[in-house]
Design goal:
The chain has about 475 residues and is mainly β. Helix content is about 15%, strand content about 55%. It has a 20-stranded antiparallel beta sheet that branches. Strands 2-3 form a two-stranded antiparallel ribbon.
Length: about 475
């Protein structure tokens, strides 16, 4: 049983590694440092792909801004828990040979702690890399224009707790029966190259209590490099058997008399194995508005990634449709079970899939404008993000964020931090800083993983964002 558990855990870790191709608005160190708030607070190149209306706003008096290879990398998972791994998956000292590690016999309490890796019954993993080799923006007289090429590699992996309940428990009631529902399991990953051309315009309108009002639009020319998505996944396994407790070791093991299974799932995949041609192409759009109201609060609204990609290169469908009933867990029956999980792969026709469309609402307040005696700039921003689908880099789970930036040295060393609640990350605490030279050259750093300092055994996210920018 310990071998089965270790194998399952390794499979989960491998799943995390192989899906390390995931992300979002992570190439701006300023925004990441402020908890990825961006709808109202982004300026210049930071606004591209997030809220193009903010391109029309002043960006520290710069007319021309150039990005120099910013990169953001992040990975987070409910399985990144050093304490659980160290306690249950590294073995214990052999009492007969202390220099050797042997398997640990799991108690019921141990099993429940391991299953705690699945809060709400689903364990989420997400990872991403976002690179923008070069970006250029122009801003003058209430008009902003930006051109940014980028590559985003994104993935989401969701696993139902049944993947560990099945080997850990075998049955879950006194009658020796168990029902294990794998619904909610999904794998979504994409790699997309993008050329974004965005513009924002400050509209000269007279609206009561509105000082500024701008609108913006972004147009994206997309080349899909690779794509995988779970269209649906329904799988249930039922067991009948008995538990046996070894009186010497206290170890409880499950012996199956019969196992029934019902699988129905569809995974769509497209890629070019040679890497020479794109697997898909399409168009996308971003729209946004921004307004300064009552002379102190800026409100932003945007919808990003409207559009679709047609995936036509080497499209595959992985289909699982099976019902089976086997007696016991011999090698032949384990092979049947393994094939049901894997499904069968078929060639298919080109298919369309939407982009990770999302709605964003945010607000920004400069507290130093409200508190006249405050000695240096201090800004606070808050956002709400709602995805329209669960594609890679997106989620329908509402995410809230609040961030702040303090600038005690008047532009030379801005300090940032932020909190993220909800979404796929569940919780994130970010921090960052910038080193700005004469308001002409920026070097910024940020991480969403500052929580490791206060909870090193249970942190679940690792990230790093670095960016350089020149202003003229």
């Amino acid at each position: 049983m310990n071998k089965v558990i270790r194998t399952s855990f390794v499979m989960i870790l491998l799943g995390m590694v192989t899906t390390l191709c995931a992300g979002g608005e992570r190439s701006s160190a300023r925004l990441v440092g402020m908890g990825r708030t961006f709808t109202a607070i982004s300026r210049g190149l930071d606004a591209v792909g997030l809220n193009p209306a903010n391109l029309a706003l002043d960006d520290r008096d710069a007319t021309v801004t150039i990005n120099l290879f910013p990169i953001g990398i992040s990975a987070g998972s409910d399985f990144i828990n050093y304490k659980i791994y160290n306690d249950y998956f590294t073995g214990v000292p052999d009492p007969n040979n202390p220099g050797k590690q042997i398997g640990r016999h799991l108690t019921e309490a141990d099993k429940q702690e391991i299953l705690g890796l699945f809060p709400g019954g689903i364990a989420r993993t997400q990872a991403g890399v976002e690179v923008a080799p070069l970006g250029l923006s122009l801003q003058f007289n209430g008009f902003g224009l930006a051109v940014v090429p980028s590559v985003r590699v994104l993935s989401n992996l969701d696993l139902a707790d049944a993947i560990l309940k099945f080997p850990l428990q075998g049955n879950i009631n006194d009658a020796g029966e168990g029902t294990f529902d794998f619904g909610g399991t999904s794998v979504n990953a994409s790699a997309i190259a993008e050329l974004n051309v965005s513009a924002g315009y400050l509209i000269p309108v007279k609206i009561p209590d509105v000082e500024e009002f701008s609108v913006g639009v972004g147009v994206k020319y997309l080349k899909g490099l690779a794509f995988s998505t779970t269209d649906h996944y329904n799988a249930v396994i039922q067991t009948v058997g008995q538990n046996y407790t070894n009186p010497k070791t206290g170890q409880t093991q499950f012996y199956a008399d019969s196992i029934k299974g019902n699988f129905d799932f569809l995974q769509l995949v497209a890629y070019d194995s040679t890497g020479k041609e794109p697997a898909g192409s399409g168009m996308g759009f971003d729209i946004g508005v921004s307004a300064l109201i009552v002379n102190s609060i800026r409100v932003g609204i945007s919808i990003t990634d409207i559009g679709k990609i047609t995936w036509s290169k080497n499209p595959k469908a992985i289909v699982g449709r099976s019902n089976f009933a086997v007696e016991g867990l011999n090698k032949e029956n384990l092979d049947t079970l393994s094939k049901a999980f894997k499904g069968q792969t078929f060639d298919t026709t080109a298919f369309d899939y939407g982009l990770p469309t999302a709605f964003h609402l945010g607000a920004e307040v400069h507290l130093d404008d409200l508190i006249e005696s405050f000695p240096f700039p201090w800004v606070v921003a808050t956002d709400i993000h709602i995805g329209f689908n669960n594609l890679a880099g997106n989620t329908k789970i509402v995410q809230y964020a609040i961030g702040t930036e303090l600038d005690p040295l008047a532009g030379w060393l801005p300090l940032r931090t932020g909190i993220i609640l909800g979404g796929r990350e569940r919780f994130g605490w970010s921090a960052g800083f910038g080193i700005h030279f004469a308001n002409r050259f920026d070097l910024d750093f940020a991480t969403q993983s500052i929580a490791i300092l206060v909870s090193p055994n249970s942190f679940r996210t690792g990230s790093l964002t670095v960016g350089m920018r020149m202003r003229f």
